[in-house]
Amino acid sequence: MISQLSWKIGGQQGEGVESTDRIFSTALNRLGYYLYGYRHFSSRIKGGHTNNKIRISTQPIRAISDDLDILVAFDQESIDLNAKELRLGGVIVADAKFNPTIPDGIDARLFAVPITKMAEELGTSLMKNMVASGASWALLGLPLEVFNKAVEEEFGRKGAAIVEKNIEAVKRGAEFVLEQAGGPLDEFKLDEADGQQKLFMIGNEAIGLGSIAAGCRLMAAYPITPASEIMEYLIKKLPKFGGTVVQTEDEIAAVTMAIGANYAGVRTMTASAGPGLALMMEAIGLAGMTETPLVIVNTQRGGPSTGLPTKQEQSDLNAMVYGTHGEIPKIVIAPASIEDCFYDTIESFNLAEQYQVPVILMTDLQLSLGKQSCDQLDYDKIEIKRGKLVQDVPALEGHDLFKRYELTEDGVSPRVLPGEKGGLHHVTGVEHDETGRPSENALNRQNMMDKRLGKLDNMYIRDAIRVDAPHETPELLIIGMGSTGGTIDEARTLLSQDGITTNHITIRQIHPFPTKPLLPYLQNAKKVIVIENNATGQLAGQIKMNAGFAEKIESLLKYDGNPFLPSDVHKACKELSLDGNIQRV
Amino acid sequence: MATFKEFRNNVKPNWCPGCGDFSIQAAIQRAAANVGLEPENLAVISGIGCSGRISGYINAYGFHGIHGRVLPIAQGVKLANRELTVIASGGDGDGFAIGMGHTVHAIRRNLNVTYIVMDNQIYGLTKGQTSPRSAEGFKTKSTPEGSIETTLSPLEIALSAGATFVAQSFSSDLKQLTKLIEEGINHEGFSLINVFSPCVTFNKINTYDWFKENIVNLEQFPDYDPSNRVQAMNKIMETNGLLTGLIYQNKTRKSYEDLVTGFKQEGLAKQNIKISSEEFDKLVAEFK
Lengths: 585, 288
Description:
- The structure holds 2 protein chains of 2 kinds.
- By secondary structure, chain A is of the alpha/beta class.
- Chain A has 4 domains: 4-197, Pyruvate-ferredoxin Oxidoreductase, domain 3; 201-381, Rossmann fold (3-Layer(aba) Sandwich), CATH 3.40.50; 388-462, no CATH class; 465-579, 3-Layer(aba) Sandwich (Rossmann fold).
- Helices cover 37% and strands 20% of the residues of chain A.
- In chain A, the strands form 4 sheets. A 7-stranded mixed sheet of chain A has the order 9-8-10-11-13-12-19, with helices on both faces.
- In chain A, strand 4, helix 2 (76-82) and strand 5 form a beta-alpha-beta unit.
- In chain A, helix 1 packs parallel to helix 4, helix 4 (128-139) packs across helix 6 and helix 9 (251-263) runs parallel beside helix 10 (274-290).
- Chain B is an alpha/beta fold.
- Chain B has one domain (4-263): Thiamin diphosphate (ThDP)-binding fold, Pyr/PP domains (Rossmann fold), CATH 3.40.50.
- Chain B has an 8-stranded mixed sheet, sandwiched between helices.
- The radius of gyration of chain B is 20 Å and the shape is globular.
- The N and C termini of chain B lie far apart (56 Å).
- At the A-B interface, strand 7, helix 7, helix 9, helix 10 and strand 15 of A face strand 2, helix 2, helix 4 and helix 10 of B.
C-alpha cells in the first residue's frame, strides 16, 4: 500500500486531455484524496503537446512531484517527452493505434490499449479519453462506480444515451487493461483516503468565489492567460447577485471602468497578467491620487513582453511594487495557497476601502491554474469592512463642498458616494485640497502627499509573513512567496533527513514590506536562501533593501518557465549549507 | 427643484476669455435644470485638457480622470449606480486621439451616458499642436508645414459603430446646444454630442466667424428624418461634417443596462452585498 502517487495524461492540445483530467480528479476527490494538479500547455488551441499531471495523496500536498507513476499517452510524443519522469517500474498506458514503444534506457511497463479503436466502436473517437481514463483507474484498483458517477455528472446534460456510452467506454478500457495486467497493480494500491470530500479548485476560481463573498458585484476585464478564468467564473455567477462582468476593449478601459465603479460605490475588480498590468499603470496612479478603492488581480506569467504566456514565473514583483509614475500608497498581497486566494481576496476588498488605496492581489500561474484540494472555506470568517464610508451627512451651506480629502490623524478621510445630498465634492488626479479642488499651494501639496503616503504606516495584513520556525537558530532560513511554499516544505523534509535545520517564511505582504516582523528571523538564521521564479531575485532585493543582511542572503532562481521541484530546492539548500554556495538550477 | 443656478459653483474657469467652452458649461447647467436633476444626482466625468476641467466648474459630483479615459470611468459610474445621470466630457484630442478606442466601444456598448465633446480642432492646453480634427494643411507647432493627415470624422465613425444618438452643435448656439444636451440625457442609451468650441488662442482658422459662415443647421431641412441612418450618413458627407442639430437617433435599441441579465433598476451601489450562508454553500458545493 502506498500513500501517494503521480498520474499524468499527455496528448495533442484539444484531444481531450483536459476533460480526462477533470473526470479522473473529480472521482479521486469524491474518495477523499488530496490532489495537486499541474497543467503544461502552450499558447494555442489545437495541436501541440499538452499534459496534465495530478499528484494523489492521503495527506495534504501542495507541490508537484519530481517523479511519475502512471503515464497515459495519446501519442508517442507524449511518451518520448515524459517517460524520463517515470520512476523505476512505472506504467505507461498508451493507445495501441500508434504502436507505442518505450524509449531506450527507460524501465517501465507498457500497456498498449486499443483506445481509439474501442472509442470508434462505440460511435466516436471523442470517447477515447474515457477508455484511457477507465484503463488507468482500473490499474489503481479504485471502485469503478465512483468513477462512473463523475462521468454521469460530466455528461448528464447531454442525455442518458451519451452517459451510457461513456460509461461503456470506461468499462471496456478497464476490462481490457485488467486482463492484460492480470488485475489491479499491487504496487499502485493506494491507502484508503479519509473519505472527507475536499474542495477541489484552481486559484482563479477561489479568487472569483472570494470576490463574490467580499461583495464584489462588477468586474471589468480583458481576456489574458492566466487570468481569464476569473472573469469566466464571475460572468456565470454575478448575475445571480445583481452584478455583471464587462469585457472591455483593453486593460486601460478595464481598470478605469473599475475605478469609476468603485468611486460610485460598487466593489469592482479587474484581473490581468503582466502585459495588462503594464497598461494599467497610469490608472493605478489615478486610484492612488484620488484615494479611490481598487482591487487588481495580477496572475503572473513568464515575461517580459509576451514572454512565456502559459508558463510559471514570479517576475512582476518590482512592477507591482514600484509601478505608476510619482509616489502613491499601494498594497501588494501574495496569497500562497487556494485558501489564501479566497480569504485574501476578501481582505483585499476590505483594505482597498479601509485605506482608500489600490490593492494588487498577486498570484503566479501555478497558483492561478494548478487545480488542488483545499479545506472547507468558512462562511463565518467572511467580514465586510467598508472603512470610512459615510451616509446621511449634513447638508452643505452655499458653495461649500464636502471635505472628501480632509486631513485626519490616520490620513484616511471620510468618503461619500455620488447621490448623497450633502456630499458634493470634486475628484481629480491633479493635486487638490481637502474638498478635491485643484491646488498648487506648496504647503497643501506637502500635507496631501504626507496624508496619502502615511496611510499605510504600520499596516499589516493577516499573516503578513507566514512563519514555520521550529528552530531558534536554523542553519537555513528559506524564504519564498506564492505557489512555491509546498515545494519548499517537501524539500525541508529531505533536508532534515540530511541533518540540516531549516525555518521557512512565506512573504505574503509584498508591499509595504513587512520588515519588522521579518527581522528577528533574519537575525537568527545562519544563512538565508530566497527562492523565486525570476532571473534577478526581486524578492531577495526587497528583503536586502528593507531589512539588510545582504551578506548572508543567497538566491535560488528558476526562470525556465517551470515551477520548482522539491529536488531543485533540496539540492540548492544542501549545497548552500555544506559548501557555502549554490549552483543555479 | 433645482434651477440652473444650483449647478453653478464659485470656481472661475481657467479658460481663455472668449473660449467656446464657457457656453458649453452654461448649456450643461441649463439642461441639467431643465430635465429636473438635482446636483447630487448628476455625475460629470471629464478627461484631460482645457475642456477636461469642466467637471470642476459644475456644481455636481465631478470626477476629473486621466487623459483619454473619460468614457470607461463614466461607464463604470453608470454601471455602479444607474440612478445617476452621467455626463462625460472632454476635448477632441481626449476623445478622438488618445481615447478613440474607448469612444468606439462606448458607442457599441450603449450605456446610458451622455458624451459631450468640446471640439476645437487643436490641442490647447499643450499650447497648439495638431488634433485628429485639424484640417489637412492646418499649420500648428507640431505640423509647421501643415497637417498631412486626413481629418477624422467622428460623426461618420459614430454612425458606423452603431451609435443610437448622434448630434452636433456650435457653442454660440446656446439654445440649440441646451436642447440637444437635454435630448441626450433623456435618450435611453449612449449619446454623442460633438460641439464646435472655438479656441480663440491657438486656432486662427476655425474661428467663430468661420463656423458661422460654414455650418449648416438641420432645421433648414424640414423633411430631415433623424431615425434614418442612411440619410444621416449622407447628410454628414454632403456637409463635410459641418452640420448641427440632432443627426441620428435610434429609439428602439435598448440600453446596455436594460440588456444585462438580472440588472435591477435600483442602483447596484445601493444593494446588499453580503451573501447568505445558503448562497455561499451553494457556490462552494460546485467545487466538491
